[in-house]
Amino acid sequence: MNRSLTSLLKIVLLIAALGLVLPASGALGAKPVQTTKQPTASGTGGAVATVDHDASQVGMQVLKEGGNAVDAAVATAAALGVTEPYSCGIGGGGFMVIYDASEESVSTIDSRETAPAAFQEDSFLENGQPIPFAERVTSGLGVGVPGTIDGWEQALGKFGSRPLSELLQPSIRLAARGFVVDQTYRQQTVDNLARFEDFTSTRETFLRNGQAPAVGSTFRNPDLAATYSRVADGGGDAFYSGRTARAIVDTVQNPPVVADPGRTVRAGLMTTADLSGYSSLERAPTESSYRGMQVYGMGPPSSGGSTVGEALNILEGYPMSDLTLPRDDALHYYLEASRYSFADRGKYLGDPAYVDVPLTGLLSDEFAAERRELITEVAAEHPVAPGNPCPYNGGEPCPSDAQASTAVEGPSTTHLTVSDESGNIVSYTFTIEQTGGSAITVPRHGFILNNELTDFEPVPGLANSPDGGKRPRSSMSPTIVTDTGDDPIIALGSPGGSTIITTVFQVLVNDLDFGMTLPEAIEAPRVSQRNTVTTSAEPEFLNSPEAAALVSEHGQSFTSTPELGAATGIAFLPDGTVQAAAEPVRRGGGSALVENPVP
To answer: Region (Disordered) spans which residues (predicted)?
Structure first.
């Protein structure tokens, strides 16, 4: 009997031993039924929005069985690790923003990957020069210590009501039974085929006869089901120590390359001590006000909360919702606010355990006013220089010699948004960085390792330069907005590397200023200005009269990109209903569900 069948049999026996009941969609091993997903759902009770219907169903089932938003978010995330393995999973990390309805308070959990202790400022240099980015990406050297499972345990320990062992069961079944391959999954496999072919374990786990699985076929991952089962039995210790930890370290230090790989694959520096010593962190959220609303986000080492908050602070000085303000003028101010906030992000943001981040100054109204004064009716010349938030930093330490950072972030990642009938909310972005991560699968474990350390600058001396134990800067921007009484208005987030920030920023402006519903705000064509010569824009935006006016009247210039982001969110409406929303088209479209739908 081959190893895959043996692993599948183990899952069957496990399910029988635990007395688990399979979902009505089919027996274990039966071909799953592909269900049409809808991007918008309105109603009462709990709500879930993700990029994947199977994952959204898992979260909704937890809510219907009495679990709270944190329970459902963890179960949903585990399911996304099965169906979206090239974007997220237990080989990576992320950031979770949680609204506790009973306390009317917001907390955040940082499960960002860390550099191994042996990592140095010059670990990405050879002969004094940076290792080429593509070689950093597909290597053991780029793998950070994964934080996802520890983050799940910390979230559940403080805010959850169900044990991780229970919440992993739907994903154990999903991985063993399989899911229907769609065009997005197949295309992501095709796009990574050359990388995947170079690793024996990735070939075996994710390719079928050396090729991407066909659309409509059933994809099973019994190795991941077995890994989840071990974690269900032993908790995080079963991942951060013992068999799985040894397998991760061996994979990082000795990448399982084929006999003649098509690339140079460097070994990494991770040890079992790095894994056993990992700890996720509960941090205070970033907080800023916007037109009387409170905007909560993720603080450093994420740059999402500070950059979205600063951009909104700058934009607050313009009458964006005034119908007499031409839309191209409003969009020009939006682009310039983003441009200036990205300049500040590049200089100051990093892991606060290693660099002094002037967060108070960056989010101050006074600093925003100073940056706003630089904006004219014509696009600024690239690049704009970072400002100096230190005078507004409340006497806290402020870096004096930081230099701007331009590290590249992969466009992958995934985001889920969940709320429950009690009003608790989770906005959770998590990732393995590049689409396909490092491309290195842990043999016989069913998951791909991240390449998150490539989010560092490869050179020393910057706020975001590498160091042992340091967390690389991120752009993940899980966000929750409340009114003056701390009642939720909207929760959202997106994947997309550094464009995450502009996607969240634009959806907020669309909803809060331009009067769009959340589904309309998500569907609208996007643009992304990140202190670059040209602004990335989707084709539909480029064909709009606003784009033409931005070029002719404001001197903006654009570069076409197929799509930006893949947002999900939940709006909390004045009549007490909730509206879950996902993408209707981008990344193959998403899946929104509510507990008690209304027409």
So the answer is: 460-482
